[in-house]
Design brief:
By secondary structure, the protein is an alpha+beta fold. The chain has 13 helices and 34 strands. The longest helix has 19 residues.
């Protein structure tokens, strides 16, 4: 509660104090808008991105600021801007980037200079991964999708359901998260606000994907900075330019063999630092195209971190064409540099500078082997790329030996703020760093209208009867066994069979399928419903079931509900179910990764709920349960990886690291009261 109150007070203070700021358009020299250009404010340690029309807004307190305008393929522009009490119009025109090529020479033997750049960048990749001990930042994520093509039959079915396959309509969802990273493997995400297509029900926000091109692989694709990169890619120096006092190399990346999980495009490397300046790469997975852009900024001297990401996913599946735009801005960085690696040194390519490399190796060999790594990396020293990689491996081994805890590949925690889905439009008007485009505004408007219409049909939907089926007696058809069937019995009574209500895969149950049968009776403002939900897992050959009955009474705006539930069913250890079963199914079948942790419970639960309009709700519940730990029963996956296997079904207890949950059977009596 204290954290939420602090956040609200800070947001309110921002509304009062940061009434001013900058806004305007970023265009090229021909006057064409530059979409997704990055605007970064040095003093604020944060910034924003232009929308599809090249427009931006960024709120700032009164003062003088150094503002950087940046776009891939264009010269970076730095301006000193004074901000007052009101928004200041700042329109920018960026000139196309001029690349110097006249000094590019082919080294003896026919090697392109790109190879020495990439050898040094690859050698220093481990250093950059270990350079930051901790960081905290705010991440704004926006995803916009649209349908580009629909098969004729599917188009008719969609139109029959009242859905238009309109490629100009954007379906948009947004979220704001606070992320924290602690080296080497701890990542925490707290979602503070979510808004999605006018859907006012609780929704899962988009998880921010924490990946780094300094790793050997990112999203199972080979990074151009992987130690194995030269086996997968050809590199070519396409030129270089100056940006904020740094020379930046433009490197063309071409896969030696085209296919999935390799990148093609350009990566920009900062000279001497050998860190990433920006990148624009494309990869394919199962025929789906992924376009990636990242822009980095020096958030601290010689520490370049990403400040904007853009992913465009496009393809065609079963005749349905689509594209999905994913945009993320990272701001308000708080970082702590690894003090052991806060040193300055030069990297030597021993294939080019043989004499310097020999001298550096001799100097390193003369040092005491037991001396600290930071001593070997002392300021002004020169290291060959091989020596640097060896030292970084030694550093990682020393750290691992000092850590009494067993090796942990990753430690990820996720929290959804209770107010995340309840922010109104005025909140988003202030917090949203990227203005909505007209298409996205239209998408929100249409989605809000659909949400209102959905509310009006909620009662019919609860009864399990589609609007198109009301009053129709088509009778039971053969395929209704799979697709479901609804029947109006008369006198406010309905029977609905869902067919295959849900299906998926996990290592505990194997392939599983869920169905549902419901009976509903209405009279006036009262409703009584019976429900049975069977669930069958094929690998462990076991039938689970969940039964419930509930009675709702009272006026619509402040009704009451009594519900009794019982059964033997599968549950996730974290009751809010942070892992979506459909997403986990895809990871398991295509990546041999499992994120859900399941247990089985036989239980009896009684709950009472009282509603006051849409603003307040009281809930009281009592539950008695026998809970049993479950083990994996299958290692099935569609794409088996020899070096990978499913993790056990034992959950991690973040509050007490190293402890394990009870692995047998336990009984629990749970009393709960909530007022929202």
């Amino acid at each position: 509660m204290r954290t939420r109150l602090t956040f609200l007070l800070l947001t309110f203070a921002q509304l009062l104090l940061a009434a001013g700021g900058i806004r305007g358009y970023v265009r090229d020299t021909e006057g064409e808008p530059l979409a997704y250009a990055t605007i970064y404010v040095d003093e604020a340690g944060s910034g924003t991105v232009t929308n599809a029309e090249g427009y931006y807004e960024f709120r700032l307190l009164p003062g003088d600021y150094r503002v950087i305008f940046q776009h891939l393929g264009y010269e970076t522009q730095v301006q000193r801007i004074s901000v007052g009490e009101s928004m200041k119009e700042v329109n920018i025109r960026l000139a196309p980037q001029t690349f110097e090529l006249n000094t590019v020479e082919i080294i003896d033997g026919g090697e392109n200079p790109a190879y020495t750049v990439m050898r040094k960048a690859i050698a220093k990749a481990d250093y950059h991964r270990q350079q930051v001990d901790y960081y905290k930042a705010q991440v704004y994520i926006k995803g916009s999708g649209r349908l580009l093509g629909t098969p004729g039959i599917a188009r008719k079915l969609l139109e029959k359901e009242g859905v238009k396959a309109d490629s100009s309509m954007a379906y948009t969802s947004e979220s704001v998260s606070i992320i924290e990273y602690e080296r080497p493997h701890t990542f925490r995400e707290r979602v503070i606000s979510v808004y999605s297509q006018g859907d006012d029900n609780e929704s899962s926000p988009m998880a921010y994907i924490n990946g780094s091109f300094y790793n050997a692989e990112i999203a199972q694709a080979i990074s151009p900075l992987s130690p194995r990169a030269f086996a997968y890619y050809r590199f070519e120096l396409a030129g270089f330019f100056q940006d904020r006092g740094y020379y930046v190399n433009k490197i063309k990346v071409t896969p030696r063999s085209r296919g999935d999980n390799v990148f093609e495009g350009f990566i920009y490397i900062v000279e001497d630092l050998w860190s990433i300046h920006s990148l624009k790469l494309t990869t394919y997975k199962l025929g789906i195209k992924f376009d990636l852009e990242q822009i980095y900024a020096p958030v601290q001297e010689e520490v370049w971190l990403p400040v904007s990401h853009r992913f465009v996913v496009s393809g065609k599946v079963f005749g349905f064409g689509f594209d999905y735009n994913y945009l993320a801005t990272v701001s308000d960085y708080e970082i702590r540099v690894n003090p052991e690696l806060d040193v300055d040194f030069a990297v030597i390519d021993e294939k080019i500078d043989r004499e310097l490399a020999a001298a550096a190796r001799a100097r390193l060999a003369a040092q005491d082997k037991r001396s600290a790594i930071e001593t070997k990396l002392e300021s002004g020293q020169e290291l060959t790329r091989k020596d640097l990689r060896r030292l970084m491996r030694e550093y990682e081994k020393e750290e691992a030996a000092e850590d009494p805890e067993p090796e942990v590949v990753s430690n990820y925690s996720y929290e959804l703020d209770s107010l995340a889905t309840k922010r109104d439009s005025s909140y988003w008007a202030v917090i949203r760093p990227v203005p909505l485009s007209p298409a996205e505004v239209r998408g929100y408007t249409v989605a809000d209208s659909l949400s209102v219409a959905a509310k009006e049909e909620a009662e019919a939907a609860e009864d399990g009867v589609k609007k198109s089926e009301q009053g129709q007696g088509k009778g039971f058809q053969f395929f209704d066994i799979l697709t479901g069937y609804s029947h109006k019995l008369g006198n406010g009574q309905y029977l609905h069979y869902d067919g295959i209500h849900n299906a998926g895969f996990n290592p505990v149950e194997g392939y599983w399928v869920v169905s549902r049968l419901r009976y509903t009776a209405r009279k006036g403002g009262q409703r009584w419903r019976l429900s049975l939900r069977p669930r069958y897992g094929f690998a462990w050959d076991r039938l689970e079931w969940l039964g419930s009955t509930d009675y709702r009474y009272g006026p619509k705006d402040y009704n009451s509900n009594i519900r009794l539930r019982t059964g033997r069913y599968i549950a996730q250890f974290n009751e809010p179910k942070p892992v979506d079963e459909a997403v986990n199914t895809l990871y398991a079948l295509f990546g041999e990764r499992n994120f859900v942790r399941l247990y089985e419970k036989e239980f009896l639960q009684l709950r009472y709920q009282k509603n006051w309009f849409a603003t307040a709700k009281l809930s009281l519940s009592a539950e008695w349960a026998d809970r049993r730990f479950l083990r994996n029963t299958t290692d099935h996956t569609l794409f088996d990886k020899a070096e990978r296997m499913y993790a056990s079904n034992e959950p991690d207890i973040l509050e007490r690291p190293g402890t394990q949950p009870p692995l047998g059977t336990e009984r629990a009596a749970i009393l709960r009261a909530d007022f929202m």
